[in-house]
């Protein structure tokens, strides 16, 4: 069979497929998860992803941008899917979900450091589950033999029950809302993007709150008494969805300074890192890698000497 | 002129061939009366030894410096008599042939008196022309004894190895990453079923190891300048981003590369890595990075390590080669029948082409040798092979692709031998063409293995949306009814077509292509390897489709043909070429360069502000530029304006109104007229023929002069449009020129039938005779008086047009 390129788009999903006689590849964008941030578009090595702005309807909330994938340009390398903060993109080879570039260490994965110490949990508390804006947390109570308990009050010996907090990590942007809502201080989260976000309210157009409309994290941006949008950096995940829709140049500044990722040594990653952060931050990371390497080799030599 | 012409005329009896019709005695007598004729002698057979001896003797005795032989066609014996006069110490170009056999005795046997009168005119024309002849010198150019081979398929490999073994240096330029061509893609070869790469692979390695061969792969030919023995070729080496020398071909880089892309070598059915070789036996075994897919993670650089073979900064590199001959062996492409809705190719999952099946059967192919369907990965239980998809179809490719019958038989045999009764194989064919050694026997083998042969065309293919099985509706010509076949796999034997880029290469090399798009040979029978450009030869399927043994033979043939040039220290070039008089050239003053544009061979250079210049060795002597030059600055040696006009004047000295003056091109119309004579097709005697090498030489002034002198009719005879011209496109230039002229003459009051352009091939003797009869009818119908009156009316205008000529 000759090679075929297919494209399917529904309200919930966009997928492009390359079908060969012996193998097929697909890239799927889950539209319900995509926030129209610019990360995949910025790092796609083949410029196959395009950001599409939806027109603003007066009187309605601003809708976030969407992405479009060019099936002829996409080579199903998986770079976009390995770095999507919301886990909205998936590459499949022969229907199996894979990250080809991660496997060969040509590209890193985001490290989502989410630690839940559920021994601290009160068995009736579901605050984190409620706090998650993306509904990624499921709290359940289990008996020692692993059975889920539906009605906690019916169990007499409550001490033997334990709480299980299940987080769908691959979709988590690490906004820390659950961490801050947790009454027992049982959750520890490290953001994978670190950076600076700043809104120059004096530049904001009158009555504009487009950034706030599209922000996927409640509370990261908020409308203050002055009628302008302000930032709460504790919850911002630095995805950039707000910057994409901001109508006024320079009104919203966002800069990522560090990305928490699995270690790799790859030209493709260096390029992506520079695009996502800045040349300065890239140099920092490279220098750090350099020193680690030197330290490693010194250590190795000493070890050998000891033997 | 340095010396007074002393002309000897030798009238040949040719037994009774000439003397039987023509009064040779009267003719000889008449010849003596012509100006500057010193001696006229009759001879029974001039071409025989005694006849030739008589010429040699007469030259010495009478101190002759010009010779006219009135005998047969110059196409027959011109070289013979050139040699004769040369042996007598005369320049061979100081001799002219008067064709009184094909043009007089043979075509007018029933009117001997008129034939004799015509013969007298023919001799008069020859004498007039020969008076103006100048001695010409054959040129010699040095030969670079290296060859360029374009295309490294099996034909090119054969040529390269043969030439290299003869001791010539060979540059083998290949556009793709590896040599090998289509043969390296095949599983088995018919009719012996030996493994294709197993027999080609060693040859490929031989090429790479041969000290006389340099492979320049992944490269394009950009331009070719020069001429036989002295070509300058510009080549662009495209960047592989991997250096050839340090690359060990180990393939560790391929293992770590994360990116896969469809492998064209596998007909896009399988994949290869962004850094890889197209197939494991590739020669040269150097990896290539496909930058369209590479994400530059540099994992390959890491693993390559100390070898340092990978260089992302590599740039395209241009090199220049000097070679003596060029052999084109660019092969073919496969037609992909996306546009023919009948077959559903590209739409139905289980419809594939034969080359795709080839890659499926091959053990090193994308499925590891398993024939499986794309829709479900299962082995098909019934396979229908459909022949002539695109071939033998006047709406698509008119020709027969030649080897599809055989490869389908091979596929049938392979499927039957591999899966036995587990698979049913049908072949839908129009004609089963199994000529050549061992092929018919192979056909029998396929029949004996139980292949079902159905003679007929597929008319419809339908796909079951659930099972993805196919229903092939076909016309069974033996039963005379429609049949339906259930197929789990349909394989299309698609046409083979000229390689992409053939048009571009044709332009670069100034080589013509036939109507089918393949390169055109110089002569379909006698020069099947040569092209119209001296020193450029063809090998393999680029000239027309061939199977492997035929391609190999032609490859060796091309090596032999190329060696005829390469083995010479110098190469002789006919002096009948064009020359520019720089003092007259208009290009010095204004932007002209018409000659450079019209030259079919790119032999003329006309840089702005400088006089045009003809590269002698590239000039083929058609004379198109001479006729096109607006300031008469170009002359064609041996066919100068003065020489041709002298023939025109001689022909029209008496009773011009009764005569048809014909300018006939040497290769088609003149040859057609010769054939009319040889086949004794009789026609009236009114024609007086002027032979030119190409109809492109026919200047407007010749027509003006003829009409001014009162010619009854003027005819320009050419090769058929568009491809028959011996000089690529001289006839096309002539047509454009004459179309405009005809319009003008008609406006001035010339009856349109009095000026005609006709296309007569060398095979159309009957047509030539008929044409003459028809023109004579018209001539009679017009009447002498009307013609005279028209001429009177035209004369002032014509004289004005011709006045330029005298200055």
Q: Nutshell version of this structure?
A:
The complex is a heterodimer of chains A (307) and B (807). Chain A is of the alpha+beta class. In chain A, 23% of the residues lie in helices and 25% in strands.
Structural summary, described in words:
The complex is a heterodimer of chains A (307) and B (807). Chain A is of the alpha+beta class. Chain A is built from 9 helices and 16 strands. Chain A has 4 domains: 4-103, Alpha-Beta Plaits; 113-190, Alpha-Beta Plaits, CATH 3.30.70; 193-259, Alpha-Beta Plaits, CATH 3.30.70.20; 277-307. Helix content of chain A is 23%, strand content 25%. Chain A has a 5-stranded antiparallel beta sheet. Chain A has a 3-stranded antiparallel beta sheet with strand order 10-9-11. In chain A, strands 4-5 form a two-stranded antiparallel sheet. The model of chain A has no long low-confidence stretch (mean pLDDT 89). By secondary structure, chain B is of the alpha/beta class. Among the domains of chain B are: 1-138, Rossmann fold (3-Layer(aba) Sandwich), CATH 3.40.50; 333-497, FAD/NAD(P)-binding domain, CATH 3.50.50; 577-626, Alpha-Beta Plaits (2-Layer Sandwich); 639-807, no CATH class. Chain B has 22 helices and 38 strands. Chain A binds chain B through residues 1-4, 18-23, 45-46, 75-79, 100-101, 103-107, 265-269, 271, and chain B through 256-262, 267-271, 293, 295-299, 302, 336, 338, 345-346, 349-353, 356, 360, 366-367, 374.
